[in-house]
Specification:
The protein is α+β, with helices and mostly antiparallel strands. It is built from 10 helices and 13 strands. A hairpin with a 2-residue loop joins strand 7 and strand 8.
Length: 280
């Protein structure tokens, strides 16, 4: 059984499968925030694109969580204490320890890779030019500079990796205001292993291809939680914990601005909230 068949037979209650008939590719996206993210096949279903044989064409970040998000009572009933602490907390008791904090950009996720020698783009739920988001991204990332596109496609084909961008723009405002349109390289993911490229290597790749990168900081846990409370016009940070898992530190100002202050800890789950959960 290949990966596509696995999703089609065993995960119909947890993921949405969208078939792009033109490309004959399948986008796999988890259905909602209540599915079992301890299952790696569900956690990776976020912008995941497969061909008809179940080969991975595009792969983004697996689902990750806000700091201490999983300590809410309804999550404790679903996951073990060990799994929770590995995915929303830090193990170090050293209050002076500093972590590499990466600016979390407030835009839309766009994945880019190669399939049959052509560029393929994906959001969290669909592929290529089927939405305004991807149509605009195609013009900026593919059509704008053919020579650069060819270099990127060769890189993706040779390495078997997906480039992960955050699209920010005055025309795509969620909460944070940006002065100009940009596709910021926020990650590169190995399609086969799911491994994330290091931040230093991402800086090198961004320099090679002419992409911008998020700002990086050194922060203690106290710094991060303080910034959550006081920063304005800033979504927050992303930090790797000691277990190698990503953790989000979203600001109070972002939650207030998006009218999502109870997104993770409240009971009301609107259609808008589901969309933000999928794209956050």
């Amino acid at each position: 059984m290949n990966l596509l068949e696995l999703y089609q037979t065993k995960y119909t209650d947890s993921v949405r499968i969208y078939h792009n008939e033109t490309l004959d590719l399948y986008s796999i996206t988890y259905l909602h925030g209540g599915v079992n993210f301890a299952d790696p096949y569900i956690a990776m279903a976020r912008g995941l694109v497969l061909d008809k044989n179940g080969n991975i064409v595009l792969r983004g970040f697996s689902k990750f969580f806000n700091y201490l998000q999983l300590h809410a009572e309804h999550y404790k009933k679903q996951y073990t204490d060990e799994w929770i602490n590995e995915h929303d907390n830090f193990s170090s008791t050293n209050v002076d320890k500093k972590y590499h904090a990466i600016e979390k950009l407030d835009g839309s996720l766009v994945l880019m890779g190669e399939y049959k020698n052509k560029a393929v783009l994906s959001s969290t739920s669909t592929t290529n030019q089927e939405t305004d988001l991807l149509s605009t991204a195609y013009k900026n990332l593919v059509d704008k500079n053919k020579d650069l596109t060819e270099r990127i496609l060769n890189y993706c084909k040779e390495t078997g990796q997906t480039l992960v961008f955050e699209y920010v723009s005055p025309m795509n405002q969620v909460v944070v205001k940006y002065e100009k349109t940009d596709y910021v390289l926020i990650g590169i993911v190995n399609n086969h292993t799911g491994a994330y490229m290091s931040q230093d290597d991402l800086d090198s790749i961004a320099t090679e291809f002419g992409f911008t990168r998020p700002k990086r900081y050194m922060k203690t846990l106290q710094d991060l939680t303080t910034d959550q409370r006081i920063l304005k016009n800033h979504e927050g940070y992303i930090v790797f914990n000691e277990y190698g898992n990503l953790i989000k530190f979203k600001t109070d100002d972002w939650f207030a601005g998006s009218d999502q202050s109870d997104l993770f800890f409240g009971t009301r789950l609107t259609k808008k909230k589901v969309f933000i959960i999928l794209d956050a």
